């Protein structure tokens, strides 16, 4: 940084810079050149090159040259003894004007420029030091805020798009896996169809050969009876070779799961309910009458004639019997949810066909009829499941009211709404399992007939067909009060030959005996 350069020299300093007169240098031009060179070297020693620019050095040299010429022409000691020819040359030189004013102006201009350079550099330095501390103008700050908000929105949108991209990729992968599985299933179905087609073609060829052989051997016998027998045997063979979709073990496991769900619901509902004395309101009277018609008077007498506040085990058994009976009656019809009159007609047709035709024929007819009913009425399954659930809510609420449940208004456990809000998920699982069993036993099993069994109240106890729930605690006696766990029975219609004639007989096997509660339960639960 140049503070200031003094361009004015005093006479003593400049005289030290002058060159001693050399007689050999007679030419003014040469003398001026030498003086300028020495002045230049003097200025170089006085002022470092790092403090002044080249343009300023040239300007100073120009001023020095003018100063040297001024003093050289006006100093007596510097006037040489000229030769005549030199005097003539000096007379021909252009007169030199007084450079003092010019030198003063140039020095002032130079000082002014140097001061401006100092101010500019100081201003730049101050601005460089304080630029980080200055605040942005309002408009610039607003623009920066908008840019930041836009950047944040863009980053949020980019994050959402990345999440959606990952979700779509995962969905695409799962869809591809599902399509792959379906393609494999289609390939298996095509192979099965090809095998069935080849088997049918083989049977047709055998039938043609048999028919031609019979016609050649015995032309006098009528062929209508033979054709009918062949058609019957072919139908039976096709149905008998069909494999069942479910095995007997799978059916038994499904019944075990259903009984477990019923037990859990009954225990949970009994645990949450608070019991007291039986009410005599209209609601309680109506619930008592309905329960007696459904489960029998013995059940109503047990529920209403005792205090269940300390031990509600009888209420739990009543709820188990209620749900088990409801499921068994729903599965005993030909098609769940179908109108009663139409279902009764179909049941009669199937019973007659089951007694007169082979097992595969009647099973095939039942499966086709059941399947086409659901095809014609696609919402029948949902309707039947909802109706079954509502029946369970209504029957269970009546049992709790008869047992003395405190508070049977809207929202309490003694009402359908209260049971639906607290145990809706468990009831839906029970109805779903029941509907699945109905479809499997009526459409997907051809070799036999599985029946879900629940004993009716008032029947006599038969240890070969049922099991006493409290039989291990004492002697079983009395009539049946209710069924606490469902059973499974298998019926198969088989043909047998007696005295040269073909006859059909039904084979019945109890695969899982139902569990019942007898009158003797009071001896163990509530002895008096």
Could you characterize the architecture of this molecule?
The chain is mainly alpha-helical and 528 residues long. The protein has 3 domains: 11-79 and 86-130, no CATH class; 144-209; 248-525, no CATH class. It is built from 16 helices and 6 strands. It has helices spanning 11-17, 28-46, 54-74, 84-91, 100-130, 138-217, 224-240, 248-272, 282-295, 297-304, 313-331, 340-356, 359-376, 380-402, 416-443, 521-525, and strands at residues 449-453, 467-468, 480-485, 487-498, 501-512, 515-518. The strands form 2 sheets. A 3-stranded antiparallel β-sheet has the order 1-4-5. The chain has a 3-stranded mixed β-sheet with strand order 2-6-3. Helix 9 crosses helix 14 (380-402) and helix 14 crosses helix 15 (416-443). The longest helix is centred in the middle third of the chain and has 80 residues, at 138-217. The N and C termini lie far apart (120 Å). Mean pLDDT is 75; it is low at 1-26, 76-97 and 128-135. Residues 192-210 have a biased composition (Basic and acidic residues).
Short description:
Residues 192-230 are annotated as: Disordered. Residues 192-210 have a biased composition (Basic and acidic residues). With 528 residues, the protein is mainly α.
For the record, give the distance between the C-alpha atoms at the N and C termini, rounded to a whole number. 120 Å
Major β-sheet annotation: 3 strands, antiparallel
> Order of strands across the biggest sheet?
1-4-5
Q: Please, how many helices?
A: 16
Strand content: 5-15%
- SS content category: mainly alpha
* Computed CA radius of gyration, to the nearest angstrom: 60 Å
Total E-strand runs: 6
Helix content: 55-70%
Uncertain parts: 1-26, 76-97, 128-135
